[in-house]
Amino acid sequence: MIDHVYISVTDIEKSLAFYREALTPLGWDSCGRYDSTSGPDGVPDLFGLGDDTYLSGSGVGSSIWLRQRKPGETGLYLGIVCDTNEAVDAAHAAAINAGGIDEGRPADRTYFAPGYYAANVADFDGNRLEFVHKAWNSTH
Fold first, then answer.
1. Which CATH superfamily is domain 1-73 in?
2. What pTM, to 2 d.p., does this model score?
3. Which of 18, 31, 42, 109 has the most CB atoms at less than 10 Å from its CB?
4. Confidence check: pLDDT of 139 > 70
């Protein structure tokens, strides 16, 4: 299941208005802003939209996070749901073994939320994957 996607845009406010209007009929709405000053270097400001499930916290939902595009930036950032921290570890190891580029070893990412455990890799073209387990979404 896809947990979240980062979309790099040139105009945050214009893009937020577009995505909010386009996704409203599907039950999506704004879900917050992440201020990068509270996290480590390299984590950008993020502007979120989430589906009904994500917004209500009633289960594993999906979200889109807009970020300011940097000059020359392309590629995709895709968060993939893992059922456990061990699944995050295994997916990260497999991706590195397959030739992926380590962009963040498995660890707690408490700057996002308590119980947020993730690892990051990039492929050969700069597309990024985040393997993520959110403790509050556990079914085990």
1. 2,3-Dihydroxybiphenyl 1,2-Dioxygenase, domain 1 (3.10.180.10)
2. 0.70
3. 109
4. no
